[in-house]
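Researcher: Good morning. I'm working through a list of sequences from a screen, and I'd like to move beyond sequence-only analysis. For each chain I'm collecting a predicted structure so we can compare shapes side by side. This is the next one on the list. No need for commentary yet; just the structure.
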Amino acid sequence: MDERTILTTGANSGIGLAATIELARRGYRSVGSVRSEAKANVVHAAAAAAGVEVETVLLDVTDAARCEEVVADLDLFGLVNNAGFAVTGAIEDVGDDEARAIFETMVLAPMRLARLALPAMRARSNGRIINVSSIMGRVSTPLGGWYTASKHALEVLSDSLRVETARDGVKVVLIEPGGFKTGIWEDMRRDVDKHTAAGSRNADVYERFLQLQRLSEPIMGSPEHCGRVIADIMGTRVPRSRYLVGVDAQALNLTSRLTPTIVQDRVVRLVLGL
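Model: Good morning. Structure tokens for this chain:
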């Protein structure tokens, strides 16, 4: 057994749950953060089904005081910043409060937790901070501007943090998944329904967007794949700075690099009817 402690945020579903279980399977002391007892029960049930033991802590990552309490109790070797949510909406359809919530959860919170975890990592001259980004941290699409903005911000902050902490033996790594079969797609449907009910001029565009997502499901990966990548990074002596995960992520990255912007824009507008 490896007694080193790893905290994974947003552990009740998707990539967070898969990582929490896989890390426990590899022998780490795996701790998953959730926002309610009901979600903690989901994690423990999944761990029991997998034949491993995990711990859970109640944590809203946007609560700064609670973040301090949790990290102070754990003496972390590893931190997996995974907590987040999908946001589908044209720039004009997303209000200030929602935009702030996106950045609070997916930009400020990961950096806060990293900052709090660094003293323990620095003391042992070893540590891992894995920030779960997305292929959308490299590219962008219409109807996802605020989500992709948060991932772009997470990526550049991770780049700065990686260099700033290298002398301390801390490795900061980004993983950039493509589309995975998680609850993120249900979140998209919720957002589309909300914007449509509010009278958005983009109602038809949203429906075309959702149809494209449904068509892409056959090539989506599983959260378990990401969980294994995260666990591999924790055990790798010299991890890479970035890991693209998924066939669609690889393809989209290559396409965005090779295709002129004017062509990309024209194709997307034709497909979505913009």
